[in-house]
Each structure stands twice: as C-alpha cells, then as structure tokens.
Amino acid sequence: MGEFFGFLFLLAIGGGTLSSSVKIVNQGNAALVESLGSYKKRLDPGLNFITPFVDRIVYRETIREKVLDIPPQQCITRDNVSITVDAVVYWRIIDLEKAYYKVEDLRMAMVNLVLTQIRAEMGRLELDETFTARSQISEILLKDLDVATDPWGVKVNRVELRDIVPSKAVLESMEMQMAAERRKRAAILTSEGERESAVNSARGAAEAQVLDAEAQQKSTILAAEAEQKTIVLRAQADRQQRVLRAQGTAEALQIIANTLKTDPKAEAALQFLLAQNYLDMGTAIGKSDSSKVMFMDPRSIPATIEGMRSLIDNPPH
Length: 317
Prior knowledge:
Blueprint: H1 2-21, E1 22-25, E2 29-35, E3 38-43, E4 46-49, E5 55-62, E6 66-76, E7 82-93, H2 96-101, H3 106-123, H4 127-132, H5 134-148, E8 154-166, H6 168-262, H7 265-286, H8 300-313
Antiparallel strand pairs: 1-4, 2-3, 2-5, 6-7, 7-8
C-alpha cells in the first residue's frame, strides 16, 4: 500500500515537472527564458521545452504591430503661441531581447520620447506652418523616432499627428482674422465685378459705335453706288433718247426730201409750215412778261427753204 502511494507521488511530481517544462507560445508572440537569473534563449511560436526548476519565462510579448496613443501635449511654437498636440504611433518589436533588457519600461519610454520630439519639432515652426506642414512633421518624427528606438529593438512604422489645437485666445484671434480676410476678399471680388461690368459696358458701347459707324459707312457707300448707277442709267437713257430723236429727225428729213423730189406741191406746203412756225414763235415770245424787241424778216423764209433744198439735193457724206 505504501509503495502504491509512493508511486503516485512520484508520478504526480513527474507530471508536474513535465508540464512545467513544456511551454506553448501562440502565433504572433514570443517569450524570453532565463536560467538561474541570466538570459538563456527565446521561445518562438509553437511547442517549446525548458528545464524545470532552473529555467523560467521572464518576458512574454507580442511581435505584431501595436498602436501607441500619445496624450495631448502643450507645445510652444517659434512665434510663442501655445498649442495642444496629440499623435498616434504605429510600432512593433523586432528584437525582443533588446526590448526587455535595454529599457526598463518600453511603453513609457516611447511615450516620453515621442512627446519630447513633438515639442522639439513644434518649437521650430510658426503657428501657420504647423497646419500646412503636418505631413512633413510626421515624416520628421518618424525618422527621428525610428533612429532613437533602434537600440531598444523597436521599429517605428508610422507617426500621425491627429489634432493641433491652439489656445482659446488664439482661436478667437484667428477667427477674427479669417472674418476680416473674408470681408476683404468679398470687397475685392465686388470691386473686380464692378470693374469687369464697367469694362464690358464700355466695350459694348465702343463696339456698338463701331458697328453703327460701319453701318453708316456701308449705307453711304450703297447710297453713292445707287446714285452713281442712277446717274449712269439716266445718262444712258438721255443718250439713247437723243440718238432716237436724231434718228427720227434724220428719218423725217429723209421723208421730206423724198416728198420734195416727188411732189412739186410739197414745197409750197413746207413754206407755209415754216412761216406758220415762225409766226407762232414770235407770238410766244411776245406773250412773255419780259420786255423785248423782235425784228422779223419774211424774206428769210425762202432762204431757209433754199438751204434745206440744198441739203436735200446735196446731202453731206
């Protein structure tokens, strides 16, 4: 009976020893083992064995990327303006031994380091630059923190500034400045609009005057051309009329000549007509209002007839 209980005791001790020597590390984690107070090895994800009662796990930590939330921090810019800045740091442990043995409290050390770097970078910039150079500040912080945390076995992947908040007095002054700037821009836009309107009106008036002048010029040219055409047409009509009259006169003279040649009585009739026309002309002149003296020689009529006969008998060639 005693042997049985002894066997059970030994079995329990052996099982406890075996269970204490078997260590399982989850994926994404790692652990450090010390043997009698000195560093021995690192346990990677999976099944691991250690020496019971001699080895012990002193540090267990994830090697995945982690987020470090930096609390709001009061900073002073180069132009002596108080602002509050907070940030987020994405980092991971790449060397577990350095992260445990090189620094006592890794998280606290990183928070203090980030706050110090933020205050230093904000002190190099003026207030307006802090809002426009956010990405540049993040890049500078990433570079400085990555170098500073390398001895701790830490890799800083990204740094993001979340909020940059000036003090209440600064915010009020900025709002007043922005309101004044908006009023200034509104006044400038109004004046530019009025100027463009005046320029457009003047340009429209000038173009209207030019178009009116061009229209008047074209109208004058068209009127002159029409008048010139009218004069030409009238001249052509007068010329054609004179030609027709001359042709009629020539034909009439030819008829008279033929009549005088063929009919002896026609000469007496012609003398009578010329005498009648001569007397009618004198009567018309006598009826006019102006004073006049007219001498009439009846003997000139036969001479006129003789001249016409000579023209008929001997026509010009």
